[in-house]
Batch of 3 targets.
Target 1
Amino acid sequence: MNTSFRFLLLCSLATTALAADPSPSSSPSATPIAAVAKPTPKVYTRPVFPPISPADLAAIEAALPAKATAEPKQPHKALLFYRAEGHVHESIPYGVQALKRIGEKAGAYTPVCSDDMASFDPETLKQFDVIIFINTTGLKFVNPIHRKALLDFVASGKGVVGIHAASDNFPTWPEGQELMGGVFHGHPWHASDLVAVKLDDPTHPINKGFNNQGFRLKEEIYQITGPYSREKQRELVSLDMSKPETKAKTVDKDGKPLLDKGGNPQIVRNDNDFPISWIKKEGNGRVFYTSLGHNKDIFFVPQILQHYLDGIQYALGDLPADDVPTAALKSQPNAVLAPEGSTETLQKVQAAPEPPKAGTNAVAPTPPPANTVATAKPSQAMVPLSPDQAKALGESSLLDLPKYNYGDAADAPYNVLEALRKGTPETRSQFEPKLVAILKDPSTTEAAKETICRWLGWMGSEDAVPVLAKLAESTANDPTNAAGNTGGYAVRALATIPVKSADRALVDLLASGREDRQVAVMSAIAVRGAATAIPELSKVAASKSPALSESAFQTLASLGSVEALKAILEVKAAKGNGALKNAGVINASSSLVAKGTALADAASEKLASIARSEGPYAQRLSALRVLASAKLPAGQKEAVALLKNEDYRLRNGAAKTLAEFGTPEQLASVSWSDSPDAWVIVLKRLGQNADASSIPLYQKALGNADSNVLLAAIWGLSRSGDGKNLESLTQLLSDSNAPVALAAKSGVATLKGSDVGAQLITLEASSKPALAAILLSILADRQEHKAIDSAIAAMNSSDPALQSAGCEALSRLAASGDLGKCLTLVSSVKGRNAENFQKAVVRATIFDPSPSAAALQIVSAFDQGDPSQKEILINVLARLEVKEATDKLGAILNSQDVDQRKQAIRALSSARSATSLALLPVIAGNGQSNSEKILALKGYIDTIEALSDLNNNDRFKAYLTAWKLASRDEEKSAIRAAVKKIPAKKIPKSKEAKELLQQITPPTAPVPAPDSAGIQNPVTKP
Amino acid sequence: MNRRSFLRMMALTSGSAVFPSLLRADGSMPVRKSPNERITIGLIGCGGQGRSDMSQALASVNAQVIAVCDVNDAHAQSAKEQVETAYAAQKASGSYKGCDVYRDFREILARPDLDAVIIGTPDHWHALIMIAAVNAGKDVYVEKPAAPSIPESRAMVEAVRRTGAVVQVGGQQRSSPYFHRGVELVRNGMLGKITKVVVFMPQGRGEHGGPFIPPMAPQTPPPDFDYNFWLGPAPFVPYYKERCDWNWRWSYDYGGGQVTDWVSHHYDIGLWGMGLNTESPTEILNASAQFDPPSPLFNTATQYKFQARYANGQIIDVMNGTAILGGTGTRFEGENGWVECCRGGVSYSNGDLKFAVIPSDGFHCGVENQSHMENFLSCIRSRTTPIHPIADAHFAGSAAHLANAAFRSGRSQLEFDRITEQIVGAPDANALLHRSYRGPWVLPV
């Protein structure tokens, strides 16, 4: 065996398990809690087929031709390719087995099975003499190397064979479809239909197996469209449309054409020609196709296996057979029709019935034929080209590039671009002169020129500039004028081409005065930042045309330099274009200020005058902001003046400007109480920055009567201040104005500072109950764990509100190590505080270093404690998802104490936890009394609905369990109502879901029978 | 475009292109808005996303949608009907007419009674229209990504700084409690020192992300769709309906593929969590991408991966793929565990993180339970910065544009000068970072 072949050569029904792609592995230490399921993009995975039964294997074996019709001219290897990216035929393993054994037994070829696109890498493909596509579907051959390899393979003298769904491929590759010789367009004849078949060329060598007789089959027959034509290929076998049962599939009972789901006629051929097998010459090679191969038992039919063998030997070039296209034959052969009035089919042997589903099958499924040509992993859509491969492909595509038109297959420009993209600078410099030459050639299409301009725009050199400049001169940017667009593309290329001389080229273009090109040229100048364009731009800015003037001012502004701003100021704007000049001044100044460059007096004076003018408010505001951001006194002055403007937008804008750019001293100097709205804006804007220097301003504002000002000041202070400012806020906690008190509470909660917590604890200790309650809540917000003792102390207060507040704070503060403390309080917890207390205990347990030990502590507290405490502790146990807690609940549920049992059931029902899900159905089924069962079932149903991170499979399993336990109408309606709320697309396809839906839905109209072939017809355009 | 429409466009730009007059015909000023008056809104770009954003405004008592604008009449009509149906439901009479329709964004921006606009156009129009809007004194809700190139989004940032407009970018994850949770856990130190940040974004399916389109002859745009206007500053290419409406994003002429489409979501969250949301990367590393298959219409990257490094040394990993529980999202790994945020929820490595409570004085992303649109509307009144500022979108977007420049020039590594916002030492990649506008459109600085 030649060891240069990297792969095993023989197929085998190896029992090595070949699973589908492994699912993404989870990190072993992860315990994800929230289940989030999202669909992943579709990637080809090898299907897992059920094993072929021994009886069926024997049936295939019995149907094999005994020997080859023709002596092979040399040993051949055949690639048996079975990759189905679309519909997966169940008969694929049968087809592969049959074709494999045909070759082996007759010695006609050595079969190699694969579903890996890497088989079409030219170096791999060359070992084969024929490629057999067995029920492949939806192949796209996205990799241009594979496309070329396949076409070259046949053109060079080798063969391609297509079986059945092999005509349902290459939807985006016309040449591939052309190669196969036809495209699937629906199958009006379904797998269980009886069809009559005729031999169009009875004496043809490839029809030898049919022994000069037409016949019938139960088989799915395709309608073939696309490139199929009797002028290109030799038709061998086709449907016998003279037989009524076959003809009947084309029309309905009223004789009208049958329609498909979309309402279109199923039959699109009007020539009554429904070919089944053909051959054709392709370059030096040959193609054989037959649509027979859907049903498994087709592969038990000796005549058909003989047909395959002869077709393959023809494709290999071993069996001489006439392949002149049918239409070109000097005399048409006389077709042999199917026998009259018979329903007997060639299929004498039935396939074994469907084996049981994988889950119940004790025998592990035998994998499909081993992928012996493949690389280690199934490949993704495309194998990336190496730079050398890309270069070679790009070079060959240069020949096709000049003819490229929009809408053509994009292989040529794609290949060249990939060559450039992956190429070294040397490669690119080799390509460039060729691209430039193509660009200069008048016969090149506009589309190709435009495409080349795009590329030169990023990889071009100085050499490209002259030709681009010349192209840019061509006529206007006008979509009705193709050459004009190319000019636009050339300007775009000059905008970005990374060479200096493009600046000059663009300035010259601007100067040439082509009005309809100038705006695009100016845009390009702006992209390049070409400072040499300033004089020319100034000229254009003075133009009467508003469009040109505007563009010129904008371009100057975008240059962002002192010279550019000076130039703008010196332009004498035409009448009516004043606002455009103003915009230019503002924008240019803004760029300079952003860079930290000082503004010339002329500029700042202009800006101040714009701010003062009666022009559009947005422009005034922008001018103001630029002045202020430059820290010019005029900025402060004009802003303060605008605070009194009658337009609220100017007032607000001025306030915001002062807040953003004013110093604290400047801000303090304004008498804000005259303008409370502006004051609020300033305070809020300052507050965003959380800057301590604003604190005096907030403090001052806190003395203001206006409540909006107060609220803004509180917010600002809380963001910017620290522990030193706490008192200013806490004294507002009891303010009679509710929004103010609330804002103060929020403010104290958010105030940063390491000493704030301690201050609040101290304050709480000396506060009256109302304030103490608020402070405890804040301490819990802040997660100040040290306040836990204050919270516990509050629980002992005589003031009920403070008691509640203490317990509520405890429920949010209890943490690791606090369980003991909490348990000592059990006996003193009363009434409505019970729920918070439960939360506290649960929290302490969750954060305990050992939740198990914590749970045991609770169990022991339960066992030893007062009866009055048991209810609370049962509620706690129900909320802990810890084994020890669950076990204890189980024990309680099995105990003799009715009250405790009922309490446990109630606790589980309101906890709605995973523990509830586990325990409640048990009680619903085996509870010690009817009332307990009913209670448990209700709780169970509520739990299933409430658990948000339960996956839908489990949810339906649980509902089914509940349904089976339900004996009363009330329970059944509750389940029905809950299931009804689930959207249809979330209903899983599980057995439990099906059973449940059947049970809960009253019988209605019968469900229509599915299509007997069970196959969706893919629609492909011919 | 033909001469007639060219002239018409010139007429529109005369005198008031950039700063259309805001005085009413009778010269009076708009009256002060009382706090109870609704903020008036117009929608520019009435495709699926634009109308979805508008539906949030329609549902708000703080807003009133008064006009819609699209170069595709059918879209504009759909939007108008949506507005009228929504408001009719609130009226006793059951009918409502009061939504004006425009085709040209400059006309809707000239409305003196319009306070704010929602921009739902394709990416290539974002910069021009947003800048025109803020120059006209409007506040803006602009869809993400900010723009398909760094200079354009920089211009948007500068325009907001210059005008003081209130601008919200449409990265709605910034208002999502799931993403807040992840960011807050990180920023409050609950994960300890962060060792890794990984962003999973979707891969492009089909042809570069778009549907498989067989080669076919160019089509004729329908008469009620101004295709030339739709193209705007993008280079002229023949019309295919398959390339307009949603699938434009698979062409670099209008967008940047999945990378730019998602950078303002999961990548932005990664930056926000790490406190890097106000700066650009300094480097792109280990960039690789596939562009397949040859397509007549689309050309963006199908598969991609890269790393972005920041000035403090932090590296963010980006790839197309799915996070642990099968979704795309952002994953923060730290000494104390990991957290992962997806649109469907949050997952944690352990219970301590799941049940951890963020103290009120810690870092909080924003007001809880406030919708993205309500946040925008409330900031309009207070003149403060919304939760997804334009600067953040510019910086997050920069990583995507740099990555695309690396992919398209075949480079695995790039260095970025954050001051000049140019790529250093790779003129080809730097050229790809820039794009010029087709006449007669000019990018306002």
Target 2
Amino acid sequence: MSTETIRGFAEPHPLFASRREFLRKTGAGFGWLALSAMAHAESATRPQAPAAGGLDPLAAHTGHFGGKAKSVIWLFMNGGQSQVDTWDYKPELQKRDGQELPGFDKNTGFFTGDVGPLLKSPFQFPQHGRSGCRVSEIFPSMIPHVDDMAFIHSCFTQTNNHSPALFQINTGFSRMGFPCVGSWVTYGLGSESRNLPSFIVMYDTLGRGVPKGHAQNWGAGFLPGVFQGTALNVQGSPINNTDRDPAMGDAQQREQLNLLRRLNQRGQGGAGGEDAELAARIESYELAYRMQTAAPEALDVGREPAGIRRLYGVDEKRCGHFARQCLMARRLVERGVRFVQIYSGGMDNERSWDGHVDIEGNHRQFAGETDQPIGALLTDLKQRGLLESTLVVCCGEFGRLPVSQRGKKPGRDHNPHAFTTWMAGGGVRGGVHHGQTDDVGHKAVVDRVSVNDLHATILHLMGLHHEKLTFRFNGRDFRLTDVAGEVVRAVVA
Amino acid sequence: MMIRGGAATNQEPSGKSFWSFQPLHHSPPPRLRGFSWGVGPIDAFVGKALEEHQLQPAPAAPRRVLARRLFLDLTGLPPTPEELSRFLDDAAPDAWARCVDRLLASPRYGERWCRHWLDVARFGESHGFEHDTDRPNAFHYRDFVIQALNQDLPFDRFARWQIAGDELAPENILAWEATGFLAAGTHATQITANKAEKERYDELDDMAATTGAAMLGLSVGCARCHDHKFDPIATEDYYRLIATFTKTVRSDHEVPTDPAAHQRAMEEFRRDHAVFEQKLRAYEKDVLPSRLEAWERTGEAPAAPEWLTLDGADARSKDGATFARQADGSFIAQGKNGDFDVYTFRVRSPVGRITAVRLDAMADPSMPHRGPGRAGNGNFDLTDFALAWETPGAAQPQPLKFTSAAATFEQSGLPVAAAIDDNPKSGWAVDPRFGTNHSAMFRLAAAFTNSPDTTLIFTLKFNGNNQHNIGRPRLSVTAAESPSLKGEQGSMTVAEASEALRTPRERRSTEAQARLLAWFRTQDEGWKRLDGERAKHAAREPKPDMRRVLVCSEGLPAVRLNTQGPDFYEKTFLLKRGDLAQKQSEAAPGFLPVLMRDGGRGEGWTPRPQSESRTPRHRTALAEWMTDVDHGAGALLARVIVNRLWQHHFAMGIVATPSDFGKQGARPTHPELLDYLALRLIDSGWSLKAAHREILRSATYQQASMGDADSARKDPANLWLSRYPRQRLDAEAIRDSMLAVSGRLDRRMFGPGSLEETMTRRSVYFTMKRSRLIPMLTQFDGPDCLQSLGRRVNTTVAPQALFLMNNSQVRASATVFARLATGSGSRPAAASVRDAFERALARPPSSEELSDVLTFLERQSALYGGADGRERAMTDFCQALFGMNDFLYVD
């Protein structure tokens, strides 16, 4: 049952193999699996792992052409970071503070009744690095890294509302039901990790909630569930079902699994059986058993030396929560995890980067939560030689308006027309500033970069061709980039 | 013959001659030459293909294996030891057929097969997006599917009702519940004005794409931006299809559960009630006039209340709300709740002076939080309150001016005075005092004295906030110089009576006399007694049993979630490249031309317009086309559903892509068999149970899963069914089986679902909240409820093993199971082990297995030590049974 040919295509499916091939494959990873009925995947076009014979969809692949980046750490500035207060310095905006923005469509943002005039950034923007990059004063720890970072100032999206915009930047579609970037990447490349999920998501641990749109942001859509993100639980054990019944010790569980193995080998699909899927299931208990210890170890930042903990700010009240997650991310990519996404901020307005009220206070707070950990992450990855193979991406779901949202302390409303994304490591050309917004930072105007383009670029850096990475579902070959997308060559080293 | 798996070639016919768009072909069952096998046409078709591929069918599976296969297939639960013996001990030749019939008649059948259809229907019970708001009335759709399957509702009707049940069978609540199919998709919230139309097109796409994929196996959504690349569906066809749903909205609608029963009860009631009415009328005619005469002689006069209620008003709403007049003179607003409604009340003025008018905004269960407003929180926002008068022949109404206003309660910042100021946006509101009556009084600048033919015109505007309209208004007037809101309110009839009494009886008009009697009778003890009896009986009027159901229809109040846009746009346009900025012509509702034969029957499918119809009946037309075998899409509909049945029985359909019967999809391995099954379905009156029965009685179904070595080598994917395909149980069957085997399963059917993983009802009763999918179901490849899913993937991953090893619910079941198998203390261990095997795997252990387990129990008990070591060891063994391939797979 596990060896079926692909409907509609002459090539055998890469995910099917004989038992012999399966047995040749050793040292399988966390999500090792046999994928028998690739139900709708009559055609799944993705790179094949030549050595593995393709039985294990999470077996590591080199991609279509071998990219420099092996892992991704995506730092998600949830709620929408203001480009004009962070990375997109606009002298003209400073000058025109308090003036109306001619021709501005008051329906652009969310609070259409509170539209104010242009609002200058409350922050200073000193110059740094070889590139003379202007960096907002709220990011002191990132200053040493600006020559490693590539900035795309001309990103734009198509919706002005959090959850559709989150879906769009995560899946390429503003509707629900499509696989996210992390799922596509693990589908395309498998995982280097042993005993760990290949795609891990972390969100706010201070009780401020999950990103709007919830788990759909890291869902696998129509891809097999094995490719979905594993969101670490904030309470209890971080990964479901890794704690055994307290009444049961390791010895007892070992004994129980031995019995199970014996019974399974005597039953259908046991010894001498030709069924690779049944054999895979028998093996999966051993993998699960090993995972129980591997996962807690990987996530235990207490094992890091004091110097490293200090570097990230693990024990700082201001940023400790995000620092722990950044440090965990490093430990995970070090162990071969393919994709890590960390959300800064929670769900409700003002409990994330969603600075509708008091943009200055809001962004000072969230920069304070993230600046030191991100700076430390870049430093740490670099000193370990991991930055070359780790693509760090940082952006939110959209930008914010250059005009104020009126209130006692002015804020900024949502802006789908412009935001800045920066990337570092993993084959990125550092010190690049690509694209421009208009004089006040309202709309991307030069070298505009769509979400599809951003995704094409991330896939490219991972060695995946965005037009070739497809999955057929309900009669259509889907791509992360739908029918669009161009690699932003300027940021590729 | 076309081969499943064969690539589409240039030579293959396209357009209407493509295989799936052709009419159903009747092929006589072929005769087998190579071997003698089978019991009917299915086996003949399958056998023929086996012959052609030099394959032999596998022998029949052992009866125990068959029993477990059948129980899990039809009910999603393994047989109990009793059920198993009943079948095994039945030596009659039709034992199998009767076992099939028993299980098809079991309510468990609907619960099992419902889930297959819910996948296809992308069924979810929340809106998704920003806050993933719950849909508390969505579960009725799930219950509809269970009932439809259990009752063997003909599949064509099943399909039609899901598109237009409210139009086709409005008297049947199941038909209303069926429209939950269209409603089941996601619905964006927090939509700003600029995005509303795009979201609406996405929603129309969801309805059309799901209908296309689920019923016809067609990916119509591909034609949204360009003509379909592979299938003959033009962009224009797509927009005509979605135009069917132009005005279709989700609504939480109250539907009578059994209108016929209510009708019968009402007829009986009316018969009884007429007696009371007759007695009263007779008293009024024969006794009351003389009683009035006697009273008049006493010279008494009626005492007028301070406020006279204008209960005879003609009430109108700008946005189409209707008003139901209540006995107390108030009006309950019903139906459409417009965004910014305007109410107008016209009433013949009572004779005399008017110094002030009064507006009561009354609480009522018809409103959210019992009102008094119709907004979601129960509030209203009265921005303008105006009064004018007119006489017949006058050019236009004359406005009256108010000087001041007072109210029983005013929301902070929204005082009642704002309703009579010059600002059209400022108004009176009552947050947070909901669920109670509020009153306002408006004093006239000068007392108004009117003549008998004057009409008063009250205008109430609600211009401040969407849908903040008063739900139960009542208007009164007073002649008092310093009126109070505490003053008594009474009917206008008192005033009229006083007026009539001024004229001596001999000169009184008939009309005035009637008005006087109308008042007098309310004073008369005899009349009051009879009227009291009548009212007492009236209160016993049978009320229809109502159920609030999430439906999809037109002309009903839409479920709204913080949108700045309308519920729908009046017109659907053909969009170039799917771009809203490139609207072409308006798209008229239509069908897919590729599925219209003999020029189609557009006129025939489209019902005659009914002027009083609430809905445009475009959905009825779509449903008629969909199920029309001869001229419409019915042939494909039949092919697609029998293929889905086949897929669930054999792990793979005759067409391997169950929701894609287009060019990109697979070709049927057994095209003649597919058409045979489709024709049989239609001939049986679209009975799914008949189709199950025929498939299950075939020798093909009853083969062993282990074919000969030849079969595995020549047909590794089992395309030709040279053996029964072994399958892993789906997520629901795994969980439900563990609960059933351990005796923990709660078999209560229907009703609201649960999000608690500790729930012990069947998994189909988990609430499908899109942001909180049940982890266990997801881990075992359950659906994400976002897009129509015709076939689940089947993965084998370590997290599934972790679940079986460590999950607390699995442990709980194992613990209870262990106690059940252990029985009383005196039972020997071997007997307990045998019992556990029988319950979990429907077979006894082999001697090697028994010995393995007994050895394990000894060692594990010792490892645990202590008094409960034995019990824990038994639990560990029972849990290990759940982890066995023999438990997780069906042979």
Target 3
Amino acid sequence: MRAIIEPPPEPGAPLAPLWKRLSWFAGLAVSGAAATAIVAYALRALLR
Amino acid sequence: MHFDALLLSRLQFAFTIAFHIIFPSFSIGLASFLAVLEGLWLATKNEAFKTLYLFWVKVFAISFGMGVVTGVVMSYEIGTNWSVYSAAAAPVIGPLLAFEVLTAFFLEASFLGVMLFGWRKVGPRLHFAASALVAFGTLVSAFWIISANSWMQHPTGYVRLASGALRATDWGQVIFSPTFPLRLTHMVLAAYLTTSLVVGAASAWRLLKDPDEEESCLALKMAIGMFAIVAPLQLLAGDASGKQVLQVQPAKLAAIEAFWDTKAGQAFHIAAWPDRAAAANRWELSIPKLGSLITAGDANATITGLKAFAPQDRPPVAVVFWAFRVMVGLGVAMIGLGFWGGFLAWRGNLPQARWFLRAAVAMGPAGFVAVVSGWIVAEVGRQPYVIYGVLRTADAVSPVSQGEVSVSLICFMAVYALIFSVGVLYILRLIDEGPRPAATAPPPTAMRPPGYALAAAPEEPAAPPRGPASRDSSGDAP
């Protein structure tokens, strides 16, 4: 079964192009912030 | 003791914050430890740092999640149980907590995803940036929370309107109130100490089982290096913080030291039984003049005693007095452990020093106990005020009934007992397994449904082929 927490790339494994890695970086960051915002607004709506 | 809504609300907040503070005080230090491990792995390519990172990041993920869950509760508690406080202080405290969400929470939430799920996707350097940003986010979170708490301990830069509500007049003075820098330093050092003691205990536990485990030996040396330096620094920061308390909260300092009378050359009470009703210590074990020397830096200094304050303005004494001694006693033990470990590391026989390893394991929870004790000193010591000198705790409570608070307190106790037990047991199981290099990790198991009772069990041997031939080979088939 694949590990949930991702380990680093194998030594010597080729890295994806920089634009692709930056896209993942920005995409995961925005997804994390969006998930926090959704939970925050859901709780706010629940309490109103 | 009468359990009215006020006392129950105070117990509820004390209960929830005591559970909560355990997790941030651990995750602040652990996030920095992870960033250091990853940075060292990138710089040296020593695989032991990577193994340690992959091991401790699991513990971090669980404790971070539990910290968020136990922390969110308190925001709502302020509204439900302390609505008078909220109404009066929200214009000042509200923005500080909002800044924490907007800066720290979002920073941590954004880059925790990269940290946990994106190493192969973003590559090593961007992943290190994410780890460093999460570590920075935990410190930013501490900054805002300690800023809010410091303002409540010694409010500055505000006015009180005729309606009783408070308004900020100078945000610089609100955020950077006079006690804030030292209190932030004290808290961050406490977090680093707590984490280094846990890392040290986990590594020592593994070395007791296997003295040749390279990763645990390395982690133990790093932990010793941290608490050998940070524990003495914490003593200095705590001493400076105590001297500040003498200036801004003399009643709290008098309670910490169980000083009842105002006099020159106060004795230091090593142990005492403070009696609030009698306004005296029933018995005490003291060193003459040392109290004035420690608290004011002058053995003949005059220190204000509790009798200088009206009885209704005095904090509870015994709990503050003893919580302070637990904190300081553990701090001294941490300094001793640091020197002992440093000496053994210098001698080069750390993994074989079984008495030290046992002591390091025993000291694992000491940071948590010291942090909770320190918070008891800070929070009980500023009673009877919730905002020192401005709003009394008794006036800050919501108009809620005793029954309502009792029910919610019982619910909290039940839910927290479940979450805390499961979380801590899982972390202890992880620690017991220890860091495992990829080469010695067990092969991946087959896809099994989550929660399957044998999910972690090794693969079964291949079943023999069905059919007449297999039956024949067994010899005793029916």
